């Protein structure tokens, strides 16, 4: 049984090895002639205005998560639509239930103001 | 219905105890009196049902608590004629005492607590008598003991009360040890705690023997019965485990009446009667019972003569009467023992409550030398005490007469080893009983008034809550014997509840001649007991009323004997100096070597320190850092995987 | 087509309690959105009604074992008992929480809705007939719990513990899922009864299965909080608002018992030889660490957290015997523990007031003088958990130990008893503080009437189930027939 996982193991080894190899290659083969200009952080040729790590507004994550939720919903709808013939009326009913739940969730986030940026 | 009998006082007790502050004094006594009254009425109904309507005895489990190793521990009731009689006596006396307490404890700050305790006691006592198995019997046994200690130490600010309470506790532990051993022996032999099962296997048990000493087998039944009886000796205060009872008089008087005279101390008697199928199989054990009982009956009576504390006199009289009951058990006259238990419960409760009434009137003065002539100030108390005393000495027609006379006659009929000694003891005891009883009556109610001026001015009869119970108790003290002597002793009332082997059945022999109470009284005029009692009363009259200077002279003449009595035969001294001191020094030795250095130092404190130290150490692992936690989890997972690697 | 429809309907009827719970929760969520703060009581009442309705439907479900949704969903006596207990526990948690939440301005619909979703998660777990259904339930429960811990948004400590809980929980979920996938890879099925059929004693020699089992085990251990997967418990119990701690400490334990019973006993029962050993290690470590570390705690919530860990050890001990009696003992222990945990946390809520959490042991000093009744109740909970007869905890421990001895793990029983003795110390410390120390403050004991009544009943139940333990034993025996 475990033999079935051999390709996975090979894949992992190859992927890891290949990734590592490229880094090492770049490190070894690449020319390195640093000067002050090359070492300075830059922003389109200007000096950096601020630290590159800035705080994102937490709302960004909120929107991102909400986006993923509905994105997944679409991803779920595709296989459902394709197999609709096989699953019949129960299939439709189930999807109605699913979408209703999602709808309640949507109304909730809307009413709570999660979709308003300000 | 049976459950209601026990639960009513329990619930009342819980209400009065936990909500005492909320429901107040009136609430506390109302609820507990109601609880006990319900219990009494139900008991009376059950009694009527069984004794008159011929209902069959009930034996059944109410609830199974635990089954362990094939031994079932359960709560169950065995309600037969013996039980119903005890239930009625217990609940009636308890009810009287509850009412009386309203007056007696009127000014006490622990009023609600007291009511909670006595209701709890009633519950425990009922559990004890209604039990159908040894576990519940033991539970009730310990529970009545517990309440008794609590009540002896009720006035916990008095050092003497605390001392008495401690003494009662320790002495009873000795008895309980025997009791537990007895029960353990039964379980060992039969594998059951249920009365019915155990009694069913009694013949098989009697075949066994225990080799207590190398090569010295003892009959199992004898060992078990003696162990059980040692328990009874503790609870029913038989020599030499009697020392706690006089001291228990430190408790409030209602308690002395209820617990230390009428009910709890008779638990031992009841238990032996209940175990009659077992005791019947061991003559040795019954001889033991007989001799202990006879000794207690006579020698504790002597102590009543020299004591001056009114409650202690009654207490010694209780000891002596308990001895009488025990003697009855010894000669297989269980019915007579229980009969005396019942009549004694009424008249002794009466005497205690009367003594309490006197004490109240005397502003808590208990020394009889400070009393005298109280007859005219306390007429009801006087009359009822007189009735109680007459019942106690066995005045013909009074309840005590029937029970005591039957008992003495039964001893006379017996052929058991030691019966001759016992017969002498109980006969001599009659004289002694009459002497100390009437000494008390004369010193308290007759003669010159010896109290101080202040007390005399405030003397008055007690309130109705006190006198009504006295009167209610006086009625059965007079009459109960007439009504019950026939059926109880000779009418086969206890058939089925108490088992007597035919060859021991002394009551049956006596029953052949029994033709009703009147004839029974007439019969008594031909026996020595009655004349001995009369002699006792007469002596008391002469010594304490006619020639009050006589006792002092007699005392001077027999000084050493008086000293012996005054020191109560040295039991207390012996316990104090030999047993207590010896065990204390032994304990101290073990304590310093074993406990302090080994157990405390190395084991207890050592392990406690180790635990604390480890605890503090491991606590640091809980660093609060997320990556530490995740790391621990991964390590755990790795460990699980490693475990697999090594174990498969 | 019609055949499919009727079976679909049949499945829905079987799972009516869950369907109703979900629907009603959505209604609560919806209603809560459109009412003002002044009418928030409505949410509370609707939530309680939801639970009542669920219980009614649970009782109406036909008895016996029924399978629906092609084996994904199972209902039997066990599921029914777990669900009924859960519904009752959650209802009690709501009653206990209301005042606390109102006083601190936390009386929001989300608490109730999240708790109801968690309840649904527990229901799904109890009825899971398939590893995927189980996982679904676990995640529904876990996500609701993460959110509940962070429920008091203005409390940094709550946010921190929620974050920790979430991250660690995610790792654990990943591990569990990984284990499930390996098992699927080896056996080719997610279905628990099918799994039981395909595995035989031979399974113990298959390295792949054993690996999968180890990962599943780690996941289960994390959920329970068994050492060394326990790190989240003290921080989360301490950090979360007390009503949330009360919730976390009670109902989910039933769910995790269902998880281990369904997956380990029913699905992987033939591999008992392997998981027994692992559980042994986990259980002994849990009892040892839990009891020992609890000794040095000064915060009552943290102490109770460690107490949870040690009690989990006991549950696992009963479970690892892999005998019907052992399972019964473990379930009995779980139920008893839940009852006592509810009461202990409710006592903290009772003593707390705005701006004062009453979560230190010192805060219980002299309670016997301030309120003797509730001091006694707390005594019941403490000595009950310590396992002193005649309280319920004693019998729970007794049965576990009896189960251990029965299968010959006497040394485990000895270890368990020894550490219980250590444990008794810290429970008694609370008792000592209550009865022998002078009160630190004399503020009157608050709490609504219903709260006090429920708490008293809870305390008395701990006593009553010790004195009369037969009904519970029979109930459990019936559920695990």
Structure description:
The complex is a heterotrimer of chains A (118), B (648) and C (481). With 118 residues, chain A is mostly helical. Helices cover 69% and strands 3% of the residues of chain A. Chain A has a single domain, classed as NADH:ubiquinone/plastoquinone oxidoreductase, chain 3 (Methane Monooxygenase Hydroxylase, Chain G, domain 1, Up-down Bundle). Chain A is built from four helices and two strands, in the order H-H-E-E-H-H. In chain A, strands 1-2 form a two-stranded antiparallel sheet. In chain A, a hairpin with a 2-residue loop joins strand 1 and strand 2. In chain A, helix 3 runs antiparallel to helix 4. Chain B is mostly helical and 648 residues long. In chain B, 74% of the residues lie in helices and 4% in strands. Chain B has 28 helices and four strands. The mean pLDDT of chain B is 82. In chain C, helix 8 packs parallel to helix 11, helix 11 packs antiparallel against helix 14 and helix 14 packs antiparallel against helix 16. The longest helix of chain C has 32 residues. A two-stranded antiparallel sheet of chain C has the order 1-2. With 481 residues, chain C is mostly helical. In chain C, strand 1 and strand 2 form a beta hairpin. The chains are: A mainly alpha (118), B mainly alpha (648), C mainly alpha (481). At the B-C interface, strand 1, helix 27 and helix 28 of B face helix 7, helix 9, helix 10 and helix 12 of C.
Secondary structure elements and their pairing?
The complex is a heterotrimer of chains A (118), B (648) and C (481).
Chain A lengths: L5 H24 L6 H4 L2 E2 L2 E2 L10 H25 L1 H28 L7
Chain B lengths: L1 H17 L1 H32 L6 E11 L2 E9 L1 H24 L6 H20 L3 H19 L6 H32 L4 H6 L1 H6 L1 E5 L2 E4 H16 L8 H4 L5 H10 L4 H8 L1 H4 L3 H24 L3 H21 L3 H28 L17 H15 L5 H15 L5 H27 L7 H5 L6 H27 L15 H6 L5 H8 L3 H19 L3 H8 L1 H8 L4 H49 L6 H22 L1
Antiparallel strand pairs in B: 1-2, 3-4
Chain C lengths: L1 H13 L1 H18 L7 H20 L5 E3 L4 E3 L1 H27 L5 H18 L4 H19 L6 H32 L4 H7 L8 H18 L7 H8 L2 H26 L4 H24 L4 H21 L3 H28 L15 H4 L1 H15 L5 H15 L3 H27 L12 H19 L2 H10 L2
Antiparallel strand pairs in C: 1-2
Helix pairs in contact in C: 2-3, 2-5, 3-4, 3-5, 4-5, 4-11, 4-14, 4-20, 5-6, 5-11, 6-7, 6-11, 7-9, 7-10, 8-11, 9-12, 10-11, 10-13, 11-13, 11-14, 12-13, 12-18, 13-14, 13-17, 13-18, 14-16, 14-17, 14-19, 14-20, 16-18, 16-19, 17-18, 17-19
């Amino acid at each position: 049984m475990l033999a079935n996982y051999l390709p996975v193991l090979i894949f992992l080894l190859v992927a890891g090895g290949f990734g590592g190899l490229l880094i090492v290659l770049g490190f070894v083969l690449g020319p390195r002639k640093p000067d002050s200009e090359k070492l300075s952080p830059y922003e389109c040729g200007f000096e950096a205005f601020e630290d590159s790590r800035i705080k994102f507004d937490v709302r960004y994550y909120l929107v991102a998560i909400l986006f993923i939720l509905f994105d997944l919903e679409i991803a779920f709808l595709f296989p459902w639509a394709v197999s609709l013939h096989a699953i019949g009326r129960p299939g439709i009913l189930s999807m109605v239930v699913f979408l209703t739940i999602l709808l309640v969730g949507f109304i909730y986030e809307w009413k709570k103001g999660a979709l308003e940026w300000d | 219905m049976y459950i209601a009998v026990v639960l009513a006082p329990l619930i009342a007790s819980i209400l009065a105890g936990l909500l005492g502050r909320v429901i107040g004094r009136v609430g506390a006594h109302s609820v507990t009196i109601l609880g006990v009254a319900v219990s009494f009425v139900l008991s009376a109904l059950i009694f009527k049902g069984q004794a008159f309507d011929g209902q069959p005895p009930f034996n059944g489990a109410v609830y199974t608590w635990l089954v362990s190793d094939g031994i079932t521990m359960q709560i169950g009731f065995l309600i037969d004629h013996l039980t119903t009689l005890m239930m009625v006596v217990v609940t009636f006396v308890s009810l009287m005492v509850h009412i009386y307490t309203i007056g007696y404890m009127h000014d006490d700050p622990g009023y609600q607590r007291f009511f909670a305790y006595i209701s709890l006691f009633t519950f425990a006592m009922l559990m004890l008598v209604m039990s159908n198995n040894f576990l519940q019997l033991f539970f009730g046994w310990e529970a009545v003991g517990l309440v008794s200690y609590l009540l002896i130490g009720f006035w916990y600010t008095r050092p003497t009360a605390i001392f008495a309470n401690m003494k009662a506790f320790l002495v009873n532990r000795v008895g309980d040890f025997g009791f537990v051993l007895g029960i353990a022996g039964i379980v060992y032999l039969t594998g059951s705690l249920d009365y019915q099962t155990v009694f069913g296997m009694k013949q098989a048990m009697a075949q066994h023997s225990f080799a207590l000493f190398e090569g010295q087998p003892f009959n199992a039944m004898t060992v078990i019965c003696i162990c059980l009886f040692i328990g009874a000796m503790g609870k029913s205060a038989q020599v030499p485990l009697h020392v706690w009872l006089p001291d228990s008089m430190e408790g409030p008087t209602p308690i002395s009446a209820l617990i230390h005279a009428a009910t709890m101390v008779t638990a031992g008697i009841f238990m032996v009667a209940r175990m009659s199928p077992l005791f019947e199989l061991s003559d040795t054990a019954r001889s033991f019972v007989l001799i202990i009982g006879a000794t207690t009956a006579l020698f504790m009576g002597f102590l009543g003569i020299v004591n001056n504390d009114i409650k202690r006199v009654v207490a010694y009289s209780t000891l002596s009467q308990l001895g009488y009951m025990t003697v009855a058990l010894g000669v297989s006259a269980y019915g007579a023992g229980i009969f005396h238990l019942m009549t004694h419960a009424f008249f002794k409760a009466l005497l205690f409550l009367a003594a309490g009434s006197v004490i109240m009137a005397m502003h808590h003065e208990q020394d009889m030398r400070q009393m005298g002539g109280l007859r005219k100030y306390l007429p009801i108390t006087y009359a009822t005490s007189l009735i109680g005393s007459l019942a106690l000495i066995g005045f013909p027609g009074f309840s005590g007469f029937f029970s005591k006379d039957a008992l003495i006659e039964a001893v006379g009929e017996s052929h058991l080893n030691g019966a001759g000694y016992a017969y002498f003891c109980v006969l001599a005891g009659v004289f002694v009983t009459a002497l100390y009883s009437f000494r008390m009556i004369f010193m308290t109610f007759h003669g010159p008034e010896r109290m101080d001026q202040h007390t005399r001015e405030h003397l008055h009869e007690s309130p109705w809550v006190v006198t009504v119970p006295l009167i209610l108790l006086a009625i059965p003290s007079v009459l109960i014997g007439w009504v019950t002597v026939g059926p109880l002793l000779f009418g086969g009332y206890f058939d089925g509840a108490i088992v007597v082997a035919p060859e021991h059945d002394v009551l049956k022999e006596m029953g052949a001649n029994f033709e009703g109470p009147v004839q029974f009284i007439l019969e008594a005029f031909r026996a020595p007991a009655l004349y001995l009692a009369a002699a006792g009363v007469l002596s008391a009259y002469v010594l304490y009323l006619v020639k009050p200077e006589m006792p002092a002279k007699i005392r001077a003449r027999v000084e050493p004997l008086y000293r012996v009595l005054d020191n109560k035969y040295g039991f207390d001294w012996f316990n104090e100096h030999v047993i207590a001191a010896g065990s204390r020094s032994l304990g101290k030795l073990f304590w310093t070597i074993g406990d302090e250095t080994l157990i405390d130092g190395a084991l207890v404190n050592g392990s406690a320190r180790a635990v604390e130290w480890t605890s503090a150490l491991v606590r640091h692992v809980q660093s609060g850092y997320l990556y530490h936690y995740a790391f621990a989890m991964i390590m755990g997972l790795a460990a699980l995987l490693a475990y697999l690697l090594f174990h498969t | 087509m019609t055949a499919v429809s009727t079976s679909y309907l049949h499945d829905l009827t079987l799972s009516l309690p869950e369907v109703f719970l979900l629907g009603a929760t959505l209604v609560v969520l919806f209603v809560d959105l459109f009412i003002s703060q002044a009418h928030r009581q409505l949410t509370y009442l609707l939530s309680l009604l939801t639970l009542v309705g669920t219980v009614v439907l649970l009782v109406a479900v036909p008895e016996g074992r029924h399978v629906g949704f092609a084996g994904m969903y199972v209902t039997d006596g066990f599921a029914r008992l777990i669900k009924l207990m859960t519904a009752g526990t959650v209802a009690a948690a709501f009653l206990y929480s209301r005042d606390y939440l109102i006083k601190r301005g936390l009386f929001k619909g989300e608490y109730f809705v999240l708790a109801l979703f968690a309840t649904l998660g527990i229901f799904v777990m109890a009825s899971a007939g398939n590893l995927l259904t189980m996982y679904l339930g676990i995640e529904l429960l876990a996500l609701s719990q993460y959110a509940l811990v962070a429920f008091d948004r203005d409390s940094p400590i709550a946010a921190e513990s929620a974050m920790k809980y979430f991250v660690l929980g995610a790792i654990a979920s990943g591990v569990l899922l990984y284990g499930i996938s390996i098992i699927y890879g080896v056996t080719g099925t997610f279905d628990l009864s099918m799994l039981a059929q395909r595995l035989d004693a031979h399974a113990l020699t298959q390295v792949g299965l054993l690996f999968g089992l180890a990962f599943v085990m780690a996941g289960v251990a994390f959920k329970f909080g068994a050492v060394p997967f326990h790190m989240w418990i003290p921080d989360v119990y301490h950090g979360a608002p007390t009503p949330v701690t009360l919730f976390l400490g009670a109902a989910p334990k039933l769910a995790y018992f269902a998880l281990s019973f369904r997956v380990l006993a029913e699905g992987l029962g033939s591999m008992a030889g392997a998981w027994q050993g692992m559980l042994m290690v986990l259980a002994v470590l849990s009892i040892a660490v839990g009891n020992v570390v609890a000794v040095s705690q000064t915060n009552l919530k943290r102490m109770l957290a460690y107490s949870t860990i040690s009690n989990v050890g006991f549950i696992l001990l009963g479970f690892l015997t892999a005998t019907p009696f052992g399972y019964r003992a473990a379930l009995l222990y779980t139920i008893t523990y839940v009852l006592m945990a509810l009461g202990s946390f409710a006592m903290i809520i009772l003593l707390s007031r705005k701006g004062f959490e009453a979560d230190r042991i010192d805060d219980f000093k002299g309670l016997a003088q301030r309120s003797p009744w509730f001091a006694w109740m707390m005594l019941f909970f403490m000595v009950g958990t310590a396992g002193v007869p005649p309280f319920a905890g004693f019998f729970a421990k007794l049965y576990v130990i009896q189960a251990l001895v029965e299968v010959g793990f006497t040394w485990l029983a000895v270890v368990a008893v020894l550490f219980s003795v250590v444990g008794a110390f810290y429970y008694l410390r609370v008792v000592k503080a209550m009865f022998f120390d002078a009160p630190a403050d004399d503020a009157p004991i608050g709490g609504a009437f219903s709260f006090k009544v429920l708490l008293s009943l809870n305390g008395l139940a701990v006593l009553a189930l010790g004195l009369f333990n037969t009904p519970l034993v029979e109930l459990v025996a019936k559920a695990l027939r």
